[in-house]
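Listing 4. Sequential folding, example run.
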Amino acid sequence: MLPFLARRLIVAVLVALAVSMVAFGLMFVAGDPAVVLAGQAGRAQDVEMIRHAYGLDRPLPVQFLDWIGRALTGNFGTSLYFNLPVATIIGERLPVTLMLGSAAFLLAMLVSVPLGIAASLKPGGLLDRAALLLAVLGQAIPSFWLGLILIVVFGVWWGLVPISGTESWQGYILPVIVLSYYAMPALMRLTRAGMIEVLGADYIRTARAKGLARLRILMVHALRNAVLPLVSLAAVQFGMMLSGSIVIESVFAINGLGRLAWESLLRSDLPVVQAIILILSLIYVTLTTAADLVNAWLDPRLRSA
């Protein structure tokens, strides 16, 4: 297990390094950062002053090492719009996004996995068709449109829940439902397909022939093998919920990291955008690495791959 763990950690570090280079390079996507910061009315001497003040006149490798060194200590610089430390701004917004993504992920798993298992027990049956219809609708309906519909019905017409903000726990209900519904189809379909394949295996027929209880066969013998690809997908979906919450947070006026990223892009607040990209990417790398380790623990054959 230790050699596998070492290989995965090396890969994770290399991916994190590549992501940090991409995040750093974002500063130069819009052109010369000094010109961008000076604005359209900026004079040549203003541009030179900004370039020297921010260290943009130094070689790129030196700028990158300086930026990544400060980022590793939690210093992401100062926001150009708020004139506050970027770490302070992100520290206020990140818990909201983590709460939203975690609740949506938990709801998606609690609904999609049992539904996928139930659908696999009788392929082609009424429950299986209903589950597949739910999956198709989940893939076909845009999340922002579903969010607007829920706001109109449950917030405006019936007044059951707040339609914006997260001042109370009720404010999380609609955004969590919308964000989780986006992830349910893939999780349900993979659980269903994995269970159908495993339930047809020889060792499952042997377990049935021995007279083992049906629930024990499903939960102990079948689900352990069927869940392997689901672990990787679940990690990816959780990462997408955190990084892809821009639309949901904008629709429900939630002051989370996704909305901050969108607003910072519009304001050309590049230090904030750089930090958000780096943080979300590192969370994504951590989740996928953890999923690989869990899969290797569940299936020892993967440790030699």
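-- end of first protein; second protein begins --
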Amino acid sequence: MSAVVLRRGPVSLRVERRTLVLVAAMALVVLVLGFLGLSYGATWADPAKVFAALTGSGGGSGVVIREWRLPRVLSCLVFGAALGVAGAIFQNVTRNPMGSPDVIGLDAGAYTGALVAITVLSGTSAQLTAGSLAGGVLAAAAVYLLSSGGGLSGLRLVVIGIAVNAVLTAMNSWIVLRAELEVAIAAVGWSAGSLNGVDWEDVRIPFAVIGVLLVLLVLRSPALHQDALGTALAVTTGVRVDRLRLHLVLIGVGCTATVTAVAGPIAFIALAAPQIGRRLARAPGVPLLPAALTGAVLLQGADLVAQMLLAPVALPVGVVSTAIGGCYLIWLLTKEVRRA
């Protein structure tokens, strides 16, 4: 399929026509799912009420839609995109479709940091964010150091990451078992990954942090695309590969830890979204924008299913994403074994 060149002043960008069509289609799906999310609740709101609420009117139902449902819908959009981008970053760095944050232990590390904030400190939002970020960074550093001996390879990093993930998961269980009953119940409920009860106060700072990280990623994306064509080619074109990958890992850890600090660990979105987006776009490497849009669609869809499946009881979205992602992981492992 032919390419389209987008120009604005001295800046030009060459994009495959299929990618443009895919982005437009995914954006439409995101809007439709978002509208369903705003309409669904204890009572259905018709389109007129939703539009009235978004324009600042609508009475009591308008307040419900703006203050309760809108933060949740936007959280699905932003957090899903952040997880999709984080997965694309790590799958590009490791050159492996299983190299996602939840498989190589970064989610578990962020959860460990958050557990320390909950059990040792008072568990405020700032402490959860700082704890999750510190835990994710330490887990990434451990995986990197343990897998860098004899030259860094994607397969070694994934295998070491799975082992680190197992260790951290066991440590998290031990922390929960040692905690007081009320704290343990809260920690276990939070670990399921849920967007229930998310409001504007919970998401303002995380949205800003993720926005900054995505801007930094856009600035590094040209070098990322060169690196995706091969390390030797990237080096010959002036890309400092080690520094680039360090920046990318920090951005990916930041996205994962920020989502974990608010909603808990939401599994498999970061694993599945980049590969689904790559197959839909039929692009080389793991493109970022299709991964972000696919992550947003997956998390929005999973959250709607979580709300509707046992209504009026809303399941944690992590339960649904884990059930769907488990099937995807089985298919992916089967395919990798046949390829080997």
